Amino acid sequence: MLGIIFGPPGSGKGTQAELITDALGTAHISTGDLLRAEAEAGSPLGREVAPLLKAGHLVPDELIERVVEQRLREKDAASGALLDGYPRTVPQARALDMVLDASGRPTAFVIFLNVDHGTLTKRLLQRAAKQHRADDNRESIAERLAEYRDLTTPVLDYYRGEGVPVLEIDGSGSVEDVHERIVEALRPLRTEAR
Ligand code: AMP
């Protein structure tokens, strides 16, 4: 089963993806984590993307499409995967569809974590104080939220148009409450898949 967790920066995608993949026993593929690891390792790819990550800009579509295609070929993704932070543009969604069509496994669901703008900024600034992520500063946060609004939100309509179930989840409140809501929303799909 291949699913996508979708939402603005600060919506809790990473945390919720971790909980869901632990429960489902599928691979958690976070493109942000993959890119940060490359940047930290100082690989050629990492050196290319580090300034973009720091400024809060999306990396080029072709680059991230290659990274994900490779990652999906790894053994742990064979039985299923949850994509976290990908696709973030309509061209990325189309590229993913081509890869999935070729491997005969369609996108099963999109979990959309909906959180209001004020809460997002507050959460991202709190995370900045705790985790010291290079892109959690005020300018970069504003840039990431703007890119999300302009480039990423159209991805939801793309999936709706393709007939993929988009499960809209209220992402406010505690980690546990949001997780419960996701489990409930996924239940009918999991029953269907059996
Ligand atoms: P995240 O951890 O998902 O917030 O991603 C951190 C940063 O990695 C983003 O601000 C982008 O610079 C980059 N990134 C992650 N996923 C993508 C993607 N699908 N397309 C373009 N850039 C991405």
Task: Describe the fold and architecture.
The chain has one domain: Rossmann fold. The termini are close together. The model has no long low-confidence stretch (mean pLDDT 93). The chain has a 5-stranded parallel sheet with strand order 2-3-1-4-5, sandwiched between helices. It is globular. It has helices spanning 13-24, 31-41, 44-55, 61-72, 90-103, 117-131, 138-152, 154-161, 175-193; strands spanning 2-6, 27-30, 81-84, 107-114, 166-170. It contains 9 helices and 5 strands. The protein is an alpha/beta fold and 194 residues long. It binds adenosine monophosphate (AMP). Adenosine monophosphate (AMP) binds next to helix 2 and helix 3.
Can you describe this structure in just a few lines?
The chain has 194 residues and is an alpha/beta fold. It contains 9 helices and 5 strands, in the order βαβαααβαβαααβα.
The CATH class assignment is Alpha Beta
Number of structurally distinct domains: 1
Uncertain segments of ≥5 residues (pLDDT<50)? none
Supply the CATH superfamily name.
P-loop containing nucleotide triphosphate hydrolases
Assembly type of the chains comes to single chain
Number of strands: 5
* Fraction of residues in helix: 55-70%
Overall pLDDT metric: 93
SSE pattern? EHEHHHEHEHHHEH
Overall structural class, as computed from helix and strand content, comes to alpha/beta
